[in-house]
Amino acid sequence: QEITEFRIGLLGGENAQDRLANNECLRTYVEEALGVPTTLFAPADYNGVIQGLLGGNLDMAWLGASAYAAVYLADPEAVEPVLVKTNLDGSFSYFSIGFARADSGITALTDMQGRRFGFGDPNSTSGFLIPSVEIPQITGHTMENGDYFGEVVFTGGHEQTIIAVNNGSVDAGVTWADGLGAWEDGYNSGALRRAVDAGLVDMNDLVEIWRSRPIPEGPVVVRSSLPQDVRDTVTALAENLYATDPTCAYGVAAGDTAGFTPISHEAYETIIEVRRAQMN
Amino acid sequence: MLEVRNVSRVFGQRTAVDNISFRVDGAQFIGIIGRSGAGKSTFLRMMNRLTTATSGQILVDGKDILALNGAAARAWQSQCAMIFQQFNLVPRMDVASNVLHGKLNSRSTLTTIFNMWPRADILQALDILDRLGIAEQAPKRAEALSGGQQQRVAIARALMQDPKIILADEPIASLDPMNAQIVMDTLKRINTEDGRMVIANLHTLDTARRYCDRVIGLRDGRIVFDGVPADLTTDAAREIYGADESFNEDATSTSLPADKVAHLHVLPMAAQ
Amino acid sequence: MLEVRNVSRVFGQRTAVDNISFRVDGAQFIGIIGRSGAGKSTFLRMMNRLTTATSGQILVDGKDILALNGAAARAWQSQCAMIFQQFNLVPRMDVASNVLHGKLNSRSTLTTIFNMWPRADILQALDILDRLGIAEQAPKRAEALSGGQQQRVAIARALMQDPKIILADEPIASLDPMNAQIVMDTLKRINTEDGRMVIANLHTLDTARRYCDRVIGLRDGRIVFDGVPADLTTDAAREIYGADESFNEDATSTSLPADKVAHLHVLPMAAQ
Amino acid sequence: MTFLATGARGTADLRHAYLAQVQRRRLYSGLLTILFVALMVSGFQIAQARNAGDFLNGITHIFDFPADIVDEAIAKAGNLPGHIWDALPPLIETINIAAVSTLIGTLLGGLLALASTRGLAAWPRLIVVFRRLSDVLRAVPEIVIALVLIFVLGAGPVPAAIAIALHTAGATGKLFSEVNENADLKPVEGLASVGAGWVQRMMLGVLPQVAPNYFSYALLRFEINIRASAILGFVGAGGIGYELKNAMTFGQGKLDEAAGIFIVLFATIVIFDQLSGVIRHRLTYGDA
Amino acid sequence: MAATAAMQSDLLARFRGKRIRSFALPALILVYLTYVFFAFDLPGLASRARLDNAAILMSDAVAHKVHVTRDNRSGEMSVSIEGSRRMTFAANQRPDWVQVDGDIVQIDLPQGHSVTYDGPVVSYDYPGYGVIRITSDNGIHLDLPTPEVPDFINASSTRVAITTPAGRLSVTRSRTETLRYFPGWELFFFDLASPYWGMSWAQVASTVLVGERLDPAQSNVSLMVSNIWNNTIWRHGDVVWALGETILMAFLGTFGAAMIALPLAFLAAGNFAPSRAIRFVMRRIFDFVRGVDGLIFTIILSRAFGPGPMTGALAILTTDTGSFGKLFSEALENVDDKQIEGIRSTGADVVQRYRFGVIPQVLPVLLSQVLYMFESNTRSATIIGAIVGGGIGLLLTQAIQTTADWEKVTYYIILIVLMVFAMDALSGWLRRRLIKGDGSGR
Ligand SMILES: Nc1ncnc2c1ncn2[C@@H]1O[C@H](COP(=O)(O)OP(=O)(O)OP(=O)(O)O)[C@@H](O)[C@H]1O
Ligand SMILES: Nc1ncnc2c1ncn2[C@@H]1O[C@H](COP(=O)(O)OP(=O)(O)OP(=O)(O)O)[C@@H](O)[C@H]1O
Ligand SMILES: [Mg+2]
Ligand SMILES: [Mg+2]
User: Are the Cβ atoms of C261 and B265 closer than 8 angstroms?
Assistant: First the structure.
């Protein structure tokens, strides 16, 4: 069995151009290793990558945990998780952070009764899936409009959530952060940090009101129907990337990383169950 | 009362009206005749300020109306009603509204565009229409009327303005002989009964002879004749129309007998 | 040569052509006359197979052309050219291309749809146009031509088909008298010079008298007259047109003298 | 044939000219065809090469996703009425976005058109400026304005309404000025002769003439704008497009919801399409 | 006077009616707008609207900022444009308004402002206000010349931010950062890695024309072109490709749809359809395809074809097949039967009849519809690209949504508007050329 091309899907979070630029080195390595033309695709949202994997039109992608669950639930045979990104401290988890404007007087979820709450993308783990399960456990109510929160909206993405909270379009929202470093910097990495660096928000104006339990980093997946040797080659390549080319690894992992380590489907079973519970 | 002093109008290379001057005292019925392109329309449009003059003065009761601007110019327009060959009514509006337009200048913009006409105005419009014999057309759309009726609506609009002077630019050129006569009779009645000056561009000599107190002949923008209709001999007409010997006054007559129309219509037959 | 046997055509309730039969030998010029709705067009269209007959036979050289189907029917159409009142050209295409359409049946579909006409065909089309006196129009669009020229293009297309029979459905009804004469003369010339049979629906008696060898009169789908033009008396005409005493042949004439047009145009004058 | 001999010589030039013309035309149309085919083929190949999925492979899976939706909608058919009911408030928002933007857009468009029609413009010198302005408003895709405004005003219907209104203003500005150009100026001159001001001339002399056409175009625009506002919902501008996107992107598990929303949206589009079609038909052919 | 009383009262009643009607429409509109005013929560929006965001957007669109950052833990210094790793000045490239002298960093800002990093002490010299001193040893300590904290300072125990017209300074335990603004788009032609960086245009021109080879492998011109094309910041090559992809989607979608719709339209046209049932079915199919928007097709098709321009093209193709089917069948219903009959009477077969009797009549109408649609589809392709992941639309929406790069947003918007203008002009030109000229009736 031969392949004629290799297609890598890139998830959102940065603008398309930067994503392509940051992963260009990976593309070159894969092309060299496999000897077939390799292309990067940067769909607009999580769903673009999910559909690409489900339709067999992407061969490899780095997914969020919830997005992996979506693919798995739709077609368990479609992809297989192979690697996960590890943080500098060796962990491979991050957090969903709930936050509000400091001058709003909101300091905890309990202050949010009757107010507007913002999720990010429906396929985001930290921007929707985990908070949608954990927050009701705290508030004791569902996330339906008017049940506890006055209104619950999807802003479309992490960046939009931060802007919406900062603007006051929503009273509080959730986004992701590694939870390392200091709040005033927007933590070491994550959507808040990027917003701070861009000069969009001043962390003095925001307060953290909630933090989830650790969320496993999403897996790097490869298409199951690829020939075994191809899968092995690209997996090994990604796994060793940090050792061979740290700069490239930084770009691919969108920040400082200790590299990628092997992982298997079992690590995501909880998330899959959580997602299954969200289906109506 | 009206004095025209050295008025000219130049369009690009062409001098449409060339330094004309005349004076009118009292409410006369003035006819202006001349070939197509002689400058008749241009002159009337300058009087009404639809076209700006290049130079000269038109004094009305001692005031130069060509020097007026903005609201003052519009106020002058309301005192000097204009009647057009093509009637220039608003075809989709009813007759009464068209007549009421004569009061546009003296009523505020806001009230007029919301149809807030004073009761007195509406009744006055109806009375004027009645005077011109078309009161029963008041609620109809203007476009539903015959040409002669439309021209009478235009006259009604002019009367609504209560003008000192009525300018009429070939008011009967689009009408059949019967309607032409009704319209000219109406204008004459207004002239004599109300004592309003009428200046009418006319296409045909016999109409001018029949209705006018005084006839001005234009040729290439200049006055080449100015006198009473009785002076309008065939020679004078030749001078005005610049025609050669073959000039035949009948060709411009409006009272065409049937056999003359025939000639005109048979002609195109020969063309392939 | 041509034999029409009991041909009928029924449209719903109405029998447009009612059991007609006649026989033509040799290349005659046949005129068919009759009132509007008499069934003239329907008959010609049946001959050309544009309309299917309800019953009957049309034998041409012994073969029933009404029984033909598919390619055979189309082959018959190409032998029996049709000329229409409204010319039925393709107005956006050039004249020569329109003439070439006469060869559509004998050339392959593929080459024709890409406009790949053989050189010989193009030259022949130009020759035919030349013969009809409009060769210099060849590169122009058909719509740019006058009506008379367009009808000659239609005749050229018919000649391109090299037909045995030319059917002409009121070929001059849309033309002015001068062009009408040119077109009829052309048809007559083709009839006599080339020896092709011409069957023409005609609107006016004088045209039928002048050009036809034989005239067939239809009324309500039936043949009520069949004879030489000389037999076409006023009484016979009354029979064909079903007119009462006031019938005046002139009213259908195409060669209007000037004084008649005049009546028509003077009439509206009286209306107000 | 008997007549072929005639007149062949005198027309030799004509023949050559015509044959040359035929040659030239064949050449041009051949070149044009080749160019077009080449563009299509190479365009397709480029698109194919830059696309993740392959055309031939994809065409066989074209109904996979619709089938998933239908399966899930059927499996949970009981939820459908609920989903449809839930979709009504956002639907009303979408229609409101379309209506407001059509209203404001056509009003602006009307003003732009008046300002850019010769013979009517209050400032004839600025005609070119206003024409260009309509062109620019027309050229900027709604999504651009909507996204920028969402950044400033926050997500919601207002950015969408403003974006669509601006685009509508540009589009109708052009259409309306074409209508204006065909308007009869005689009534306007008639009104000018009685001393009417510019507003009076426009409202009483021009508007009655152009109103039916304006209305017809505005309806067509409304039809288009319903779609546009649904689409802008996809990028966060509220309304039913936003709900549909959320359900669709969540995918399996909420596809029944997507189906319900889709049914509502589709029915709305078709109903307004037909309605405006009927009214426009009546305007153009009805009372003339 | 003489007009009868009946006429008078009738006319007066009419004018009353007209008056009510002329108020009714504006009143209705006003009522509706009031309803929408509250339905869209405009009062709330007014309070939420962040005009300072608009200000950031506007200034960022035409300006860029240079970050002078010190990592307070490692003591590492970096000077970079927009804080980006890819735009970090090498030590020898640093601008002269930043002076690093061991541990002391002196940063000059416009209007006489200046910032000094001196170990844990950071001082901001604000002429007319005084020197603000911030110590970040353990916790942040702020030392002001005035007792009150002025509103250009946003201070807490963990973070201090000073925002002045001259620049911005923020200090946390981990990081000290000064931002200085400059007009213009940074590194638009040459990025920091390019040998042409820092040259004036005159220098670039002279290098290209007479200079020695900067890169022995290629001429200076081709180096310049490739440096611009491969600019790692603006990525002009990618942007040109993206524009091309957008136009390609519109082109393939529009013309593909036209070619598919033409034969189908015959089935839906009353005068050509083989049967009423087929016509009805075709019409409903067209209505359905038209009603489902291109965007929804985009989502459906992205399962089958994955991300990329072909998926977008197919989505456009699908919707437009519906639109064209409807438009074309209407055009076909208006054809003049005389021409077809004329062709038919010569014995032409069905194909020839359509080719010469129908196509020349409808072609100009169809062509002008197709070209018009082509122009409007370049706009749609921008939006569809944003969803399907291709073309300039994706770049634009992502740049807006990640809110980092307003200068790029501006750049893309300008390109999109120019592209639509160009397509508008092209389609107009083609319409005039193909429809008015050319006597062949092709
Ligand atoms: N707006 C204009 N621009 C340029 N030339 C004009 C304009 N209006 C009139 N003219 C020219 O001025 C000359 C006088 O025109 P005018 O309409 O006054 O003649 P007239 O005597 O009313 O003729 P007619 O009997 O045809 O109405 C003509 O040569 C005409 O072409
Ligand atoms: N396609 C059709 N369907 C129904 N009725 C038809 C059709 N074609 C013709 N008829 C009817 O058949 C009758 C004969 O029509 P035909 O056109 O043959 O008359 P005609 O003699 O050519 O008249 P004209 O001088 O008006 O052309 C008329 O009553 C007409 O209404
Ligand atoms: Mg005149
Ligand atoms: Mg007939």
Answer: yes
